[in-house]
Specification:
Elements (H helix, E strand, L loop, with lengths): L3 H17 L7 H10 L10 H35 L12 H15 L3 H23 L7 H25 L6 H8 L8 H20 L1 H7 L3 H6 L4 H23 L5 H13 L3 H25 L7 H21 L7
GO molecular function, one term: transmembrane transporter activity
Subcellular location: Cell membrane
Protein name: Cobalamin import system permease protein BtuC
Length: 334
């Protein structure tokens, strides 16, 4: 098991790396001075443009990116545990597709960021409720049936997104919709950060507190009940928290895939499958990962690359490695 200092220092290192790097580089000394000046009076020794770049552009984007990365990674680990499947992602129950539909619908009605946030959040959670009621029978919700219901709901909202894109103005609305659906933090600001930070942290905290129960739920339901766990209740607390996290993430950044699918596997390679250690590791790695990828997305080329493209490329590489590992009998570790 890796030292806990690694999981503390990694996000901090990526945090300062992301503030320094960009098409307009900022000296690390200036970064420290600008950050300290926000809480303690410091005589400016840096150009004013450096402060505007750090405080107005990079810092809110970085805070939202690290929050979303941590939330999606923890959500993926929790879902892979309760569904007993290493290929499950936080999007499996249709929440991302539902939130995507809500965001696109809001874009067609208005360009208000608040309306996009509200619609994405509402429709994301409605999608999960629809999957729940579709799968539930006789006060029981079998895991396999719930996953299949999620696939159905996801396919429905994906089709509805395509319908809305067909109705969008190809000159004024469609390019923005397509770019938003690919995922990006280009519109990040402190207002959006303020909207999501408290519910995000609450949900992540709940998943962290339930980490030992996720260990139990990753066994059979009979074993979990024998250990005194209320299986249905605990599963739905976890599903509710994950749904809120994903819906909030989509509402401010569009659909960013593969984070909740790939990062838990990387964390398992480092700390093992015990969720007591896996959940904190996912928080650290997820925050550092998405912040780093976003830095590459806004720095690599003159035009910003949508995050969903880069996270998909990295995810394919990771699962290609896992496929080869599986051929050698290593998948059982997951």
């Amino acid at each position: 098991m890796s030292s806990p200092y690694f999981f503390i220092l990694l996000p901090l290192a990526v945090f300062f790396f992301s503030l320094v790097c960009g098409r307009y580089p900022v000296d690390i000394k200036n970064v420290f001075g600008i950050l300290i000046s926000q809480v303690y009076p410091v005589t400016p020794f840096w150009p004013e443009i450096d402060e505007r770049v750090i405080i107005n552009l990079r810092l809110p984007r970085l805070l939202i990116g690290m929050l979303i990365g941590a939330g999606l990674a923890v959500s993926g680990a929790a879902f892979q545990g309760i569904f007993k499947n290493p290929l499950v992602s936080p999007h499996i129950l249709g929440v991302a597709a539902g939130a995507g539909f809500g965001g696109v619908l809001a874009m067609l009605l208005s360009q208000s960021s608040l309306l996009i946030f509200i619609f994405a959040f509402i429709f994301g959670n409605l999608a999960v409720l629809a999957a729940y009621f579709l799968a539930r029978k006789d006060s029981v919700t079998p895991v396999l049936v719930l996953v299949l219901a999620g696939v159905i709901i996801s396919a429905f909202f994906t089709a509805m997104i395509s319908l809305l894109k067909l109705c969008a103005d190809p000159q004024d609305q469609l390019p923005g919709i397509v770019f938003w659906l690919m995922g990006s933090l280009i519109s990040a600001n402190y207002e959006k950060f303020g909207l999501i930070v408290i519910p995000f942290l609450i949900c992540v905290y709940i998943l962290w507190r339930l980490r030992w129960r996720i260990n139990v739920l990753s066994q059979s339901d009979q074993e979990a009940r024998a250990l005194g766990v209320n299986v249905e209740y605990d599963k739905w607390i976890i599903i509710l928290c994950v749904s809120v996290i994903v819906a909030l993430a989509v509402s401010v950044s569009g659909i960013i895939g593969w984070v909740g699918l790939a990062i838990p596997h990387i964390a398992r390679m480092i700390v093992g499958s015990n969720h007591l250690f896996l959940i904190p590791a996912c928080i650290s790695l997820g925050a550092a990962y998405l912040a780093f990828v976003d830095t590459i997305a806004r720095t690599l080329t003159p035009y910003e690359i949508p995050l969903g493209i880069l996270t998909a490329i990295v995810g394919v590489v990771i699962f290609g490695y896992l496929l080869k590992r599986n051929q050698n009998g290593g998948w059982n570790e997951y």
